[in-house]
Specification:
Layout (H helix, E strand, L loop, with lengths): L1 H17 L4 E5 L10 E4 L11 E7 L11 H7 L3 E7 L18 E3 L12 E7 L13 E8 L9 E4 L10 E6 L9 E6 L8 H17 L1
Parallel strand pairs: 1-8, 2-10
Antiparallel strand pairs: 1-5, 3-4, 3-6, 6-7, 9-10
Length: 218
């Protein structure tokens, strides 16, 4: 019964995201449970829950011509990012479970005619930082492309950010069994945050040798 009620809630949210009098944006990754849902996860594979954020939006400079494939590049462009919806995994009022988001759709004015947003790419960014404004290159991130914004005439558009089936630009796909998350127990795919890699032990050892050689020369 719990699974059925949860799926009804998720279906209603998704329907709300897909039917509106204007363009709509929604972050929803509640669909049908293990094997179908992809969950947001931390670097260590644990599910994001009550900390960090997921945000969907677009960059002022359309990354059709600007590659973003490193955390440094993402952080450098964060001030040009306009968020259309932001939420914290695990804290959704509609479906509160680790790794999940099920947010009400946000409606905006119809995007038509010569609107500069038409053709701009939408992205979903997740991080362990408190907010995108506070995020630095020392934080962990995931990033993927959601869709390209289209003209709302004659058909109004809806955009749903879910990591299911995506190829991440930043982040790693993994999987795990996290017990009963309200949709049944089984193996879930995860989109893991990644951080700036720490120097390997071998590399640190090489730096140490260089330091010793420099001292001997002095």
């Amino acid at each position: 019964m719990k699974l059925k009620k949860t799926l009804i809630v998720a279906s209603a949210l998704l329907a709300g995201a897909l039917t509106s009098n204007a363009a709509t944006y929604a972050i929803i990754n509640v669909t049908s449970g293990p094997g179908s849902d992809t969950l947001w996860a931390n670097v260590d594979g644990t599910l994001m829950n009550g900390t960090g954020f997921v945000t969907m939006g677009y960059f002022a400079t359309n990354p059709l011509t600007t590659d973003i494939d490193t955390i440094a590049e993402l952080v450098a462009l964060k001030s040009t990012f306009t968020a259309v919806q932001t939420a914290t995994p695990g804290l959704s009022v509609n479906f509160a479970a680790p790794g999940f988001l099920a947010e009400e759709a946000v409606s905006v004015s119809s995007i038509t005619g010569s609107n500069a947003l038409i053709g701009r790419k939408l992205y979903a960014i997740a991080s362990n930082a408190a907010s995108l404004a506070a995020a630095t290159a020392l934080d962990a991130f995931s990033l993927f492309e959601v869709a390209t914004i289209g003209d709302d005439s004659p058909i109004e558009q809806a955009y749903v950010a879910s990591p299911s089936g995506v190829t991440p630009i930043i982040g790693e796909l993994d999987s795990g069994d996290f017990g009963d998350l309200g949709l049944g127990e089984g193996t879930y795919t995860t989109l893991k945050l990644v951080g700036v890699p720490e120097p390997s032990a071998a590399l640190l050892g090489a730096f140490g040798v260089l330091g010793l050689l420099r001292r001997r020369r002095i």
